[in-house]
Specification:
Blueprint: H1 3-16, H2 22-34, H3 38-43, H4 51-65, H5 70-74, E1 76-79, E2 82-85, H6 98-111, E3 119-124, H7 130-142, E4 151-157, H8 160-172, E5 179-183, E6 196-201, H9 229-238, E7 242-251, H10 257-267, E8 272-277, E9 283-289
Parallel strand pairs: 3-4, 3-6, 4-5, 6-7
Antiparallel strand pairs: 1-2, 7-9, 8-9
């Protein structure tokens, strides 16, 4: 069986099982099996698959047909232009989360020339590490005057398995010595610094009643009754861990901005709070500039 025939057969099987974008998924999974990009795949469409390649491809397609996400099958996901290792112990990175990276970089650029000491930045609930690693990778690419040596990076997660994945990605991207990891439920680890200039968090914000059939780990999704329990607990702690003129960057659910904004204003009345929309026009990030 050649590449084109295998891809058509896979596409039809996925479509039969009501998988969204069956043709795209069939192509991505095949490219992963034969280790070629889309262009090479198209050019070699008449080339035969070996028996082992076809067997592996069929296993991938059957997993996808059962609803398993492509990223958990290929163990790869692109985020902010970088490729990350992913498994089912971490949340699959979403495009809308790239807003956190963009806002963090803006804040770093606005501050790094104005302070005498290094900035301290922490990623709470790091998961795969995609946010903090993307910030490090992008800093010098965006502005050659910036140096990661001007910033001290830390990351936490409550899950030991998630931190293991994040460390794999630090090796993958050559930033092993740039990030200090802590296993911690929010700020509970006593070894963490007392204060930070930038606190980033993409915490569980899905209402408990909505997570039953979602493929990501429950620990990365379950935000309690209305989805805001962990976020509010985080804000209660973060307000005492942020330096004056520091910033909190927090991803939220599309319908949570009003509640979270009001709560943040209640516990940090002097802070400046901004809601940032994603590319779909949905409320996605809460930015809190702290003034105590």
């Amino acid at each position: 069986m050649n590449i084109r025939q295998a891809q058509i057969k896979a596409r039809d099987l996925l479509a039969k099982n009501n998988i969204n974008a069956p043709e795209l998924d069939a192509k991505v999974l095949l490219a992963n099996v034969i280790d070629q990009d889309d262009t090479a795949l198209f050019k070699s469409s008449d080339a035969p698959l070996t028996n082992s390649q076809y067997s592996k491809y069929l296993r991938h397609i059957k997993r996808r047909a059962r609803g398993e996400p492509v990223a958990y099958i290929t163990h790869q996901k692109e985020f902010y232009g970088y490729n990350f290792y992913i498994n089912n112990n971490v949340l699959i990175p979403r495009p809308e989360t790239e807003l956190l990276v963009e806002e963090a970089i803006k804040f770093i650029k606005s501050k790094v020339y104005k302070v005498e000491s290094s900035l301290n930045i922490i990623d709470i609930g790091t998961g795969s590490g995609c946010i903090i690693i993307s910030i490090i990778k992008a800093i010098s690419d965006i502005d050659k005057r910036l140096s990661v040596d001007d910033v001290r990076f830390s990351a936490t997660d409550i899950s030991k398995k998630a931190i293991y994945v994040a460390k794999i990605n630090t090796r993958k991207h050559g930033v092993v010595d740039k990030i200090k990891f802590y296993r911690s439920d929010l700020f509970s680890n006593k070894k963490m610094l007392k204060k930070y200039d930038i606190i980033i968090a993409n915490l569980p914000y899905v209402p408990k009643s909505n997570i039953k059939n979602l493929p990501d780990p429950n620990l990365a999704l379950d935000g309690g009754g209305d989805g805001t329990d962990i976020i509010k607990n985080f804000l209660d702690q973060a307000k005492t861990r942020l330096n004056n003129d520091g910033v909190i960057l927090l991803e939220i659910g599309f319908n949570q901005a009003k509640d979270i904004r009001e709560y943040a204003k209640k516990i940090m009345p002097k802070s400046k709070i901004q809601v940032i929309k994603d590319l779909a026009g949905l409320d996605r990030v809460i930015k809190i500039v702290f003034d105590n």
